[in-house]
């Protein structure tokens, strides 16, 4: 058993270590902020202008998948068809969202693999989504 005085000293030492760690992390964050290139919103807009639409992007995280679809306002597709493709390929949609920026519509879908042993063939999903959207 430690005495109350020893416990207070240990707590003070621990707090001091945490404070030093926080300060070190803050310094590292500030250094990274000054050295990392920043992309302005106008630069981002000019990047988006050069996109040939529609765009289908698929990220495989092992047990989950992220699908990003970028289309024009004039390109109509049924969103439920995209969700059906994912379901047919063994993924269960966890969340889906969209936003409109200018004349572009950004869809983001997060899905979990239903059966981890079987997985999802992402190249086949990508091909099917390309056929559906384009």
Describe this structure as you would to a colleague.
The protein is α+β, with helices and mostly antiparallel strands and 134 residues long. It folds into two domains: 1-36; 45-133, Alpha-Beta Plaits (2-Layer Sandwich). The protein has four helices and four strands, in the order ααββαββα. It has helices spanning 4-35, 41-49, 79-88, 122-133; strands at 55-60, 64-72, 91-101, 104-113. It has a four-stranded antiparallel beta sheet with strand order 1-2-4-3, covered by helices on one side. α3 packs antiparallel against α4 (122-133). The radius of gyration is 24 Å and the shape is elongated.
Number of strands: 4
Low-confidence stretches: 39-44
Structural class: alpha+beta
**How many helices in DSSP terms?**
4
- Strand fraction: 25-35%
The N- to C-terminal Cα distance equals 71 Å
Q: Which CATH architecture of the largest domain?
A: 2-Layer Sandwich
Order of helices and strands: HHEEHEEH
Quick structural overview:
Helix content is 47%, strand content 27%. It has 134 residues and is α+β, with helices and mostly antiparallel strands. A 4-stranded antiparallel sheet has the order 1-2-4-3, covered by helices on one side.
